[in-house]
Amino acid sequence: MSLILNLQSWSGDREQAEGLARLICDIEQKPRDDVIFLLTCRFDSHYELDTINYVRSKFPRTYVHKTIRQGRGWPEGPNAMYADSHGYCIERVRNGEWKGVDGILFMEADCVPLDVNWIDHLKAEWDECKRRGKKVLGCWLEVGDCGVKHINGNCIMHTDLWREARQVLMPMSGGWDADLAGVILPRGMPSRLIYSDYGLGKPGYNEWKGCDDLWKTRHYRAVENPLHGQNINPVWLHGPKTREAEYCVRRRLLGS
Fold it and tell me: How far apart, in whole angstroms, are the C-alpha atoms of residue 202 and residue 248?
């Protein structure tokens, strides 16, 4: 089955989003048609044409979507983008345009891959998730981990989830992933490969600790967490608030 890589860019983080898109392409050794790459941008933003063409050189099934819902600020902005792009994906799966697709990986610009085979590793864990009868795979967080119990929004969500939980296509009053926790958690599986380190690189909050910190073994603090006490070595990391993380990945994985 194919995955949708849904990269979502605010107008203010377009440069970082395009850098991430190019990094993902450079990591891939050859073009692959088993993945759909969706470049989502806000209604008042865009992706540069050379970036779009660059992505298509490695992911021939690349699409660009400009959202219709005109949310601004937080949480209206990301909620509108998520709901709009989610609906866009679902419609193309339903009408048969995107055949063989059963999962959407929602990707914010402040993420980085940490392994050259990160997509294949995630697809394998996604298959395990489905075998367990679950429909969401992501970073499971308890109150003791981040202050609110939920699965972080940089997760893989089944394209059929909306059939049993229409809420996933609706705008939310708070952060969409936290607001949907009551729907997602009972249907979710904690990922050992997707991890969120909130605000990593944000001055005064979670200072940048250098390249090696990206690949350190991680642990959950909350004893209630399903993976508490286990070593976590992610291949997809959410949280870098600095472009330095992208440069570190290029040096470590690409030698450049």
Answer: 16
Q: What is the pLDDT of residue 64?
A: 98
Count how many domains the chain has: 1
Q: With 80 as the cut, is the pLDDT of residue 11 above it?
A: no
pTM beyond 0.85: yes
Give me the CATH number covering residue 88.
Answer: 3.90.550
pLDDT at residue 1 greater than cutoff 70: no
Provide mean pLDDT across the span 205-212: 94
| Residue-range definition of the domain harbouring residue 149 | 2-254
Find out whether 40 and 65 touch, Cβ atoms under 8 Å.
yes
Dist CA 206 CA 203 (whole Å):
6
